[in-house]
Design brief:
Layout: H1 19-29, H2 39-44, H3 61-81, H4 84-90, H5 95-104, H6 122-135, H7 137-149, H8 152-158, H9 161-173, E1 177-180, E2 196-200, E3 203-214, E4 221-228, E5 237-244, E6 250-255, E7 266-277, E8 281-282, H10 288-299, H11 302-324, E9 326-327, E10 330-331, H12 336-365, H13 371-396, H14 398-401, H15 404-409, H16 417-425, H17 434-445, H18 447-453, H19 463-480, H20 507-531, H21 539-567, H22 572-598, H23 602-614
Parallel strand pairs: 1-4
Antiparallel strand pairs: 2-3, 3-7, 4-5, 5-8, 6-7, 9-10
Helix pairs in contact: 3-5, 3-6, 6-7, 6-11, 7-10, 8-10, 10-13, 11-12, 11-13, 12-13, 12-21, 12-22, 13-16, 13-17, 13-21, 17-21, 20-21, 20-22, 21-22
Amino acid sequence: MSAPTTPPPSPASKPSVTEREARQVAEAAREQDWRKPSFAKELFLGRFRLDLIHPHPLPATQDAQRGEEFLAKLRDFCETKIDGERIERDALIPDEVVNGLKELGALGMKIDTKYGGLGLTQVYYNKALALVGSACPSLGALLSAHQSIGVPQPLKLFGTQEQKDAFLPRCARTDISAFLLTEPDVGSDPARLATTAVPDGEDYVLDGVKLWTTNGVVADLLVVMARVPRSEGHKGGITAFVVEAASEGITVENRNAFMGLRGLENGVTRFHRVRVPAANRIGPEGAGLKIALTTLNTGRLSLPAMCVGAGKWCLKIAREWTGAREQWGKPVAYHEAVGSKISFIAATTFALEAVLDLSSQMADEDRNDIRIEAALAKLYGSEMACLMADELVQIRGGRGFETAASLKARGERAVPAEQILRDLRINRIFEGSTEIMHLLIAREAVDAHLKVAGDLIDPDKTLSDKARAGAAAGAFYARWLPKLVAGPGQLPRAYADFAPPGHPDLSGHLRYAERAARRLARSTFYGMSRWQGRMETKQGFLGRIVDIGAELFAISAACVRADLLRTTEDHGREAYQLADAFCRQSRIRVDELFGRLWTNTDDLDRQVVKGVLAGTYTWLEQGVIDPSDDGPWIADAAPGPSERENVHRPIR
């Protein structure tokens, strides 16, 4: 495309927004309605709707057959064509590996067959990511970023037929895509987005800089979020575009390097007067954030998929190593201090797979709204996988800290335990950090309360608005609160189907989850009553509320999956044992979290933070050398032509 013959209007300066305005932007991007049932939403309201997830949903026979056939081909490719050690050493995925995955159809796993894709279900897409990610986590990230948040998913949900016809066949077989939202000074607060898309005739002209563009270094197609200025005929707002990566004015200025995922093609991309046809706009102006968040509702399931794969590998290595390594006359596995770690890894891997498969199958069936379930799966999976990898490193001792290359050089098995710990760490940040996920899920968890009582705590509402809200809230809570007093969790024979002869009794864990769900709802109500409009600032409290919900979801999923395996005569008794172990471990964590809702150091922590920022404790920093250089904390991202070499490297 040629450059504009006349300069477009000057890009708007970086938006300056208040905290309230930023929250309003995020709120406007939320899906406001609940048109389908949600197990997790009901859970946070104190309603334990086991009927929404039990019996466990199953894939259609033809979907399972197609998925298994592809997994067999993919496994052979991973075992024979992927050299994870080489990728880690060279910090680069060879082109022939990516091209081999293209030939297999791996770029189009989630794309419909009518566009040249494989049309796999979410369940089998996740199994494929777990498999590839176990061979090379950087490759798993490449495929996930391409299909879960790159061009295919937003086009599937929001694209026109013309856009699908034009781009999906390319994404299915040849073209790698990337998703560009983050900027050097914009992370989880998109209201401050500075990249602009200025209307100019039949085009938009993009100017700005995007940071941490996963796949951006090698991408052929980009999904770019940019701010359209409001003008006559243009609603404006944050808007999504499909952009050709080879367009004039696009420069990949840097290939970023990280502590893990060394093969990740992640960079900094600058746009300078890049012309994008209006036909490439996804959805209407101003719908960009809603498109991004909706895309992530199922897209987030790709990360826990790779976390499950990591857990499986950690369990395998822990089993083999602790059985072979002897200390004080017996294998180290039989020393309680090590054995408890192995039990944690085994039980947690079982639960994570249960959460993932349940959420994925519900996504495939499309009977339930899984926005909270997917978010919980991402949050819980990324946190627990890091803990499992850390425990594996500890089990391996000095060998866990030693690199695989060093182990191999001195004649031992090259086990990349320290690498998996580094590779997994980003999952607590990718696609919504743990802290942001806590707030996102908490917002959905209190949605019902805000709908009936939100005006009571909104300082901008009039007295008449508050009076109406008070009447509505009174009616709602008069019906809701009494239901939180008693439930099936107090009946000794409730959930008796989960106590079959010859198996551990899981019914008690489900009764516990039902009681805890009601307690969780009461705690949320008490918090709202106590803090009202300040509730949104109580991030410690909200985080613990969400963590309790995540544990209860995992308990429920583990029990339901164990019963599925029992009824299908596939490791049923062993599955019940793992579910029982996980639920007992999880209940200890839940009880601790409930205690920390009201007994914590949150207020004291805020005082210390004020002191730190005020310089009160700078004396504590004395006696060390800071190896950092004196560069800026945040790089300059002013729009303009690039002064750097273009390191864009399309796969050949």
